[in-house]
Structures are given as structure tokens and as C-alpha cells.
Amino acid sequence: MITNQIETTSVLGLWFFLIPSKLLPITIEEKKWTSKLNKKKRWLYHFSRGCARHAISNMTGLDPLAIPLKAEPGKAPLLPEGWGHISISHCSDALLIGWSSKKIGIDIERQDREFKAEEISKRFFNKIEHDEIRNLSPTQIQEQVLKRWTIKEATIKSKGEKIATNLNQWIWENNASFAYHYSHQNKVKVFTRKYRYWTYSIAIDDKLTSSNPILCIN
After folding, report:
1. Which end of the chain is more exposed for a tag (fewer CB within 10 A), N or C?
2. Strand order through the sheet with 12-18
3. Which domain holds residue 184?
4. Is-contact 103 205, C-beta < 8 A?
5. pTM of the model
């Protein structure tokens, strides 16, 4: 491994940023990409990429603008070989950034987000999962579906798959430490946590032994 690259002594890093917060530096190329976006997307793109650079800079000691991050609008962010893997997720008022030496996916949602939980479960979840919520209270159903949604999104991101065609293929049974694919039975280790008003999930290589991801609040 090149000396200037990340020494992977830590297999997992998580950083939380409130939205809105101040914009952090991004590269000239990234600034050019922002010019193609509308006002709202432009701000969010600048904010998320600036925060990603800031997080990795804190971990490596390198200048944020020297981080070889490739993060085009609408595409998953990438780091070169030897730099690990990064995933970015946001909701209405929070941004979550995850880094690992293994492939990683993350997702974050507000706990009070309004949605039709049972309809989503019937439409997008596997029958095994939907059967698990049948006898729960409306509040429990809402919480369980939101948790499952974040786990599924995180898992699909970790695999580089499309959300729309894979939501009912990846299954998470209550309190399991992994999600598995219905067809080919692949397993991915998952963690789901709450922080104040948010629920977030992490999906990562199933050989990872860490069981207590630490969230860095910025």
C-alpha cells in the first residue's frame, strides 16, 4: 500500500452532519458539476462532497482537496484501489457518510417520516418479512418498516445494485445480524441504529467482526 494512502487500522468510520451546515471546500471539477444542477441539488451536492472530503481528511491527515474522491452527481462515490470504500446518504435534515476497508452501504431516515407502512411492506418487501409485521401495532409497523427500508437500501448500495429491482430480494428477518438474498442466498452483515430523531443502517462485508459502529458527530 502506498504510504500516502489510508492505513486500514480501522475497518469502519461513520460521520453525521446536520443539514443545513456550512459548505466545505470541494474541487474545481466538482464545482463545474454543480453548475449543471438546480439550486437545491447544487447545494446538497456541494455539501455532501465537501463533508466526505472533510471526513476522510480527518482520518488520513491529508488536505481535503487532495483526497482522490470521484463523486459525480447521481453516481455512487468512488475511491481508488487501496483507499477503501465510501457511501453517502441523506434525508431532509441530516447527512451520513460511511467509510470502510470493505464494500459498504449506508442509509439514514427521519424516524417521524410519514409514509404508508403496510402498503410499502406489501409492495416492496418479501412475504417472509411482511408476515412478521402482521400482528404489530400501527406504531410498531411504522418503525419496523422504516428500519427494514434503511437496511435494504444500505445492503443494495453495498452491492452496487439497483434499488427498484432488489428491494424484495434482500431480506432482513427481525434482529438478524445479516441480510440475505432470496435467490442466491448471499449474506451481508448489517447494523441498524437510532440517533436522536434518525434511524440509520450500515451494510458491510459479512466477515467484519465489529459489532458497535461509532458515530462521529460533526
Report:
1. N
2. 85-90, 94-100, 12-18, 215-217
3. 109-210
4. yes
5. 0.92
The structural domain count of the chain equals 2
218 close to 56: Cβ distance less than 8 angstroms: no
Q: Are residues 88 and 49 in the same domain?
A: yes
At 50, which CATH number?
Answer: 3.90.470.20
Unique residue bearing C-alpha cell 455539501: 47
Residues 24 and 56: their CA atoms lie apart, in Å, by 13
How far from 127 is each of 66, 95, 144, 208, CA to CA, in Å?
Answer: 47, 32, 15, 29
Mark whether 145 and 178 lie in a shared domain.
Answer: yes
pLDDT interval class at 1 (50, 70, 90): very low
Distance between CA atoms of residues 167 and 154, nearest Å: 11
Domain-ending residue, one of 76, 106, 136? 106
pLDDT tens digits for 74-115?
899 999 999 999 999 999 999 999 999 889 999 999 999 999
Torsional sign, CA 191, 12, 10, 214 = negative
Helix (H, G, I), strand (E, B) or coil at 31: helix
Which burial class, exposed, middle or buried, applies to 119 when counting CB atoms under 10 A from its CB (0-12, 13-18, 19+)?
exposed
